[in-house]
Amino acid sequence: MVNMKDVAREAGVGLGTVSRVLNKNGPVKEATRLKVERAIETLKYKPNEVARNFKMQQSQSVALIVPTIWHPFFSNFAYHLEKKLSENGYKMILCNSQSDVDKEINYISMLEKNKIDGLVAITYSYDLDQYISSDLPIVSIDRHFTEDVVYVTSDNESGGRIAADELMKRGCKEIAFLGSLSSIKNESMRRRQGFENEVKKHNFPHRILELEEPVHDIAGSVRQFFEEYPEVDGVFAMNDKWARIIIEELKAKGKKVPEDVQVIGYDGVTPSKEEELTFSTIKQPVPLMAEKATQALMQIIQDEPGEEKIILPVEFFAGNSTKKY
Amino acid sequence: MVNMKDVAREAGVGLGTVSRVLNKNGPVKEATRLKVERAIETLKYKPNEVARNFKMQQSQSVALIVPTIWHPFFSNFAYHLEKKLSENGYKMILCNSQSDVDKEINYISMLEKNKIDGLVAITYSYDLDQYISSDLPIVSIDRHFTEDVVYVTSDNESGGRIAADELMKRGCKEIAFLGSLSSIKNESMRRRQGFENEVKKHNFPHRILELEEPVHDIAGSVRQFFEEYPEVDGVFAMNDKWARIIIEELKAKGKKVPEDVQVIGYDGVTPSKEEELTFSTIKQPVPLMAEKATQALMQIIQDEPGEEKIILPVEFFAGNSTKKY
């Protein structure tokens, strides 16, 4: 039986291109489209049979690349993703890529060889763009690639704006963003942008501490920041990890949270299911992100049309690190 | 070429039995040993060639079953295990089993069909014993099975004793163990035993709160306990999750930690790599546990002799939830 790979080979294009032509989904050059249509005619290709056949060839496994699973946000996301993939009959291979781009490239190569069926990637590695192709079943979380790779992210820009608003309306006199900056374009830098846009709109006194990654001593940098700017009484931390470190550092210096300094994090993930959020934060909709990522990946694998940019809403959680409003 | 599975089939025994006969490792009945030796002779089996052949047939993947990856201890263990497996050329498939014994059985069945090469299991499911076989490459963390399955655990009994000693010598007047009890035999119940043995040895006033799992409202149970026993001024929590909930609950009730009540947890795992431990706890040697589990599994897969019970030392971390000594 003729399968989609035969069509791709006959037309001299990638699997993704054949998929886009069939589903009229995404951009394809006119000349390329003609090549694919000619191949389909030549081989007497029948999409439905092929889809079934294609499915039978699959390993029924999807790899998840995270910088490290030892992190509440990534472990929470992995928890929900594995659940959703499992409901779809897929096993999940876990890869901690931490500063090992070769490991990531290896998984992309497994994908090219059909040893795995799909890839969900949370990655900030430099230089990965050249290995990523929109022809492959990849869903990226938080990061844009040059190629048209589907991505899922929370609405970081809104998150930054909400955090600024919440600090301003809770009586802060000077507020700051504290975080780091990756050299790789990713959605999370919009947190700072949203924050900055909002405070500038209100002409509100503010500071921005944005350290270049990797930051080896977050606590030390936080300490130094507060020695330099002791008047800052409201902080938006780039994520909950930073927020936890900032809160510990303030306590160690005898400052009370939220009485002296109010702190808002970003992520909104507890260490485990049975625990409740304690400090104030911008909550990402992690179960929904995992669900949408799974759905998008299944659509690519099954050659169905789908969205390319999936941006999901966030909300403020009022915990014990901000004052009552 | 004859392989080990042929030998097992010819002898009418499992792969693990052939392995134990070849490596003179672990108990084998005399009659069984003779059957295996006869099969080896009949088939002119050559262990080295076979080992190579066997290796080539493998999927090069190992599954890790955890109750949930959304938990600092499990995510930390998974982080280190994936690293070690990766160094050995194995991918790691992650399975969150949470109250789904069928999912666990499915992985055991994949193992039997050689779809995966090994299994590392952290599981507390009832009724799993009948599916586990010492013939399979399985390493269990914290739990004993009826069959001779290799297990890796931290020294829970010592951990309980150390926690009791630390609370007693830090000026507590009445100390308590707070935790839950699974109906499945596992190593972590030795934490309570170690604690109890130590306080009894010293005739020290103590309380034990051991709730039957699953516990749906840990915070509520903790609240009730302190209403009933307000004199308790030192707590050993069964794990860090319990410790975090106890500390939050005490704070919410206006009690100061460690001034009014001292608290010691068990696990000693931070939410992420860059963070430091805050409260006092008994530290499990997680990287070493992952290393030993990987080593043990590789030994089983490669038919090399190895230990059956691997118990690793713990240590006390003096954090901000106990007084200075």
TrEMBL record, chains A, B:
Query: SMART domains, per this entry?
Result: HTH_LACI
A Pfam family it matches:
Peripla_BP_1
One annotated GO molecular function: DNA-binding transcription factor activity
Keywords noted in UniProt? DNA-binding, Repressor, Transcription, Transcription regulation
Name all HTH lacI-type domain ranges.
Answer: 2-56
Q: Which PROSITE patterns match?
A: HTH_LACI_1, HTH_LACI_2
Question: Which CDD domains did the record assign?
Answer: HTH_LacI, PBP1_Qymf-like
InterPro entries reported in the protein's UniProt record: HTH_LacI (IPR000843), Lambda_DNA-bd_dom_sf (IPR010982), Peripla_BP/Lac1_sug-bd_dom (IPR001761), Peripla_BP_I (IPR028082)
Q: What is this protein called?
A: LacI family transcription regulator
Tell me what organism the protein belongs to: Halobacillus halophilus (strain ATCC 35676 / DSM 2266 / JCM 20832 / KCTC 3685 / LMG 17431 / NBRC 102448 / NCIMB 2269)
The record lists the lineage as: Bacteria, Bacillati, Bacillota, Bacilli, Bacillales
